[in-house]
Each structure stands twice: as structure tokens, then as C-alpha cells.
Amino acid sequence: MKLSQLIPGQSGIIKEFTDLEMSVKLMEMGCLPGEKIIVERFAPLGDPIAITVSGYQLSLRKQEASTIILHS
């Protein structure tokens, strides 16, 4: 399952990334494999997504969120 498929209130554990270039950026922001990630809310038009990871809140575009694969 991809992070972009979750709804607010749902959570998951990061498993891997589908985009190598984007994964470097995401890992620098604390999105590391094994970290719990919680979807907090969506912007009114659905993009970006507010998430909590590594103890802080982060906003990601849906395209960025779709590169994060979660454990099922």
C-alpha cells in the first residue's frame, strides 16, 4: 500500500520507496524505513497531505507520498 492511499487518522510503517531520487529527499526529512507515519489531514483540494513522522509534522505532495510504500 502507498502512503497516498491512506485517509486521515490512518497510519503505517515505511517499508521502501519507489523513486530513488525522491527517497534521498524523504529520508533527509526523517521518512526512514521502519518509521511509523500517520496521516493527519489533507488540504481542501486533496494536495498536499499533512503527516506526522519522526515526531514532527510534514507536508508532502500526493506525488511524493505515492513513492512511499508501507508494510501491509
TrEMBL record:
Q: What is this protein called?
A: Ferrous iron transport protein A
- Domain of life, per UniProt, equals Bacteria
Q: Which residues form a coiled coil?
A: none
Q: Which InterPro entries match?
A: Fe-transptr_FeoA-like (IPR007167), FeoA (IPR052713), FeoA_core_dom (IPR038157), Transcriptional_repressor_C (IPR008988)
Name the Pfam families on file: FeoA
Q: Which UniProt keywords apply?
A: Iron
SMART domains xrefs: FeoA (SM00899)
**Does the UniProt entry include the keyword Iron?**
yes
Gene Ontology MF terms in the entry: transition metal ion binding
Biological source species: Hufsiella arboris
Q: Ferrous iron transporter FeoA-like domain spans which residues? A: 1-72
